[in-house]
């Protein structure tokens, strides 16, 4: 079995090739190593291979893991954020990828106000309109964008999506294109800067980079299989 260092090397190489192929600079793409379900010792192996940015999807797990690790790491939250976990999450994460409803955005704004914080966030878009998924449908987002932008404590830096699970990486391409196009039209319509596009996971991150991802969220290709299901 390949080591975490070797896996990271392969993932970085593929990001770099995909960037080159699409005429982008590799410096415009950040790799978020998704360490959910994996122990701190595995994260340390990634740190030894020069990885500083990690992602978690459960607040309870992150609250245990993050304090066990060096304090110079950067952490992103990528899971569904429950209302009663907001207060714990805010100080741990420099970016929340997954603001998936107006109600959550308002709750995060309120807690941030109480705690004196200014969280940086992305808006999660349910690109395929799947009933089982969290996130704004494109129509809902357009309708609620003004209200979201009016929340004074939130810095909205961009959009995030999780396309339907598919065998082929190419199946995700159209959703990545849609997310980028929606970003472009929201920028025009609302005169805001939504520079960040969080898209691409183990099985489709190279395609995501080709379509403009600035943050790719890769777990399995770095740390190996998880024993628990994906979105826990
Ligand atoms: C688990 C998870 C990932 C990483 O998935 P892999 O397929 O293991 O790369 C990325 N994004 C989110 C939101 C996740 O929950």
Summarize the structure.
The chain has 232 residues and is an alpha/beta fold. The protein is built from nine helices and eight strands.
Explain the overall architecture.
By secondary structure, the chain is an alpha/beta fold. The chain has a single domain, classed as Alanine racemase (TIM Barrel). It is 40% helix and 16% strand. It has 9 helices and 8 strands. Strands 7-6-5-4-3-2-1-8 form an 8-stranded parallel β-sheet. The chain is globular, with a radius of gyration of 17 Å. The structure holds pyridoxal-5'-phosphate (PLP).
Low-confidence stretches: none
The distinct ligands, each listed once, are: pyridoxal-5'-phosphate
Which value, in Å, is the CA radius of gyration? 17 Å
Number of helices, counting only DSSP H or I runs of 4 residues or more: 9
Element order, helices and strands? Answer: HEHEHEHEHEHEHEHEH
The CATH topology label is: TIM Barrel
The total domain count is 1
CATH architecture: Alpha-Beta Barrel
CATH class: Alpha Beta
Class derived from helix and strand content: alpha/beta
CATH superfamily: Alanine racemase
- The tally of strands reads 8
Helix content: 25-40%
* Portion in strands: 15-25%
Mean pLDDT: 96
Question: Major sheet: order of its strands?
Answer: 7-6-5-4-3-2-1-8
- Name the overall outline: globular
Layout: helices, strands, pairs:
Elements: H1 4-21, E1 30-34, H2 40-48, E2 53-56, H3 59-65, E3 74-77, H4 86-89, E4 95-99, H5 102-115, E5 120-125, H6 138-149, E6 155-161, H7 173-190, E7 196-198, H8 205-210, E8 215-218, H9 220-223
Brief descriptors of the model:
232 residues; alpha/beta; TIM Barrel; 8-stranded parallel beta sheet; 9 helices; 16% strand; binds pyridoxal-5'-phosphate
């Amino acid at each position: 079995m390949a080591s975490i260092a070797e896996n990271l090397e392969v993932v970085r190489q593929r990001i770099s090739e995909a960037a080159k192929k699409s005429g982008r600079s590799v410096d415009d793409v950040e790799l978020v190593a998704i360490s959910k379900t994996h122990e701190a010792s595995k994260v340390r192996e990634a740190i030894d291979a020069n990885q500083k940015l990690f992602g978690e999807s459960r607040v309870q797990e992150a609250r245990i893991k993050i304090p066990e690790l060096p304090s110079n790491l950067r952490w992103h939250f990528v899971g569904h954020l429950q209302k009663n976990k907001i207060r714990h999450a805010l100080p741990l994460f420099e970016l929340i990828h997954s603001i998936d409803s107006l109600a959550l955005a308002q709750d995060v704004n309120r807690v941030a106000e109480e705690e004196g914080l200014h969280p940086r966030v992305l808006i999660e878009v349910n690109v395929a309109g799947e009933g089982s998924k969290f996130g704004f449908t494109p129509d809902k987002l357009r309708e609620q964008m003004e209200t979201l932008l009016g929340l004074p404590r939130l810095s909205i830096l961009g959009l995030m999506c999780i396309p339907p699970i598919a065998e082929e990486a190419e199946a995700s391409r159209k959703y990545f294109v849609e997310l980028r196009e929606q970003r472009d039209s929201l920028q025009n319509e609302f005169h805001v800067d939504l520079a960040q596009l969080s898209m691409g996971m183990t099985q489709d991150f190279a395609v995501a980079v080709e379509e403009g991802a600035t943050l790719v969220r890769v777990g399995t290709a770095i740390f190996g299989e998880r024993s628990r299901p994906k979105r826990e």
